[in-house]
Amino acid sequence: MSFLNPLDLIGWKKSDPRLSKIFDENKKVIILFPHTSILDGVMAYYYLHFDEQTKKYRDRMKILVRDDNFKVPIIGQILSYIKAVPAGKPGSAAGSLARTFEHLDQMDDFILCLSPKGNLKRSEWRSGWYHIARRYNATVIVAGVDYEKHTA
């Protein structure tokens, strides 16, 4: 029985096949994903679960999410279920990266997706992604969702 892919149903194209090579050759990868819409999370979920190029890496994929989102009913449960990595709030007493490092230090390999600006608002990129990449000697990729061309 053939399974109909939801990405095909909504007219989205497959991810770039070069991603597989990058993921296979590097134990630690950071994907900088400018967050422009709440739909970005839905599209990321679809690509992680249904795209032939990326679904085999699903167990390594982690999403960095501000830790206060884990306190929101239902959303917090979903974030825990998908094993999202909490990030402290910038400027907090504990430091915004300390909690992230606690989680990543326990992983042998990961593909970490994060928004370099930290939110949906128009703002400058923060430097946390750079500190994470340096600490773990991770390969950095810039990616995004193109809503006009239906690609990610």
Task: Write the SSE topology.
Elements (H helix, E strand, L loop, with lengths): L5 H4 L8 H8 L2 E5 L6 H12 L10 E6 L8 H7 L3 E3 L10 H7 L5 E5 L13 H9 L2 E4 L10
Parallel strand pairs: 1-4, 1-5, 2-3, 2-4
Q: Name the helix and strand elements from N-terminus to C-terminus, one letter apiece.
A: HHEHEHEHEHE
Helical stretch tally: 6
User: How much of the polypeptide forms β-strand, as a percent range?
Assistant: 15-25%
- The side-by-side strand order for the widest beta sheet comes to 3-2-4-1-5
Helical proportion, percent range: 25-40%
- Name the structural class: alpha/beta
> How many β-strands, per DSSP?
5
If you average the pLDDT, what whole number results?
Answer: 76
Query: What's the alpha carbon Rg, rounded to whole Å?
Result: 15 Å
What shape does the CA trace take? Answer: globular
Unreliable spans are none
Major sheet attributes: 5 strands, parallel
Q: Give the termini distance in whole angstroms.
A: 27 Å
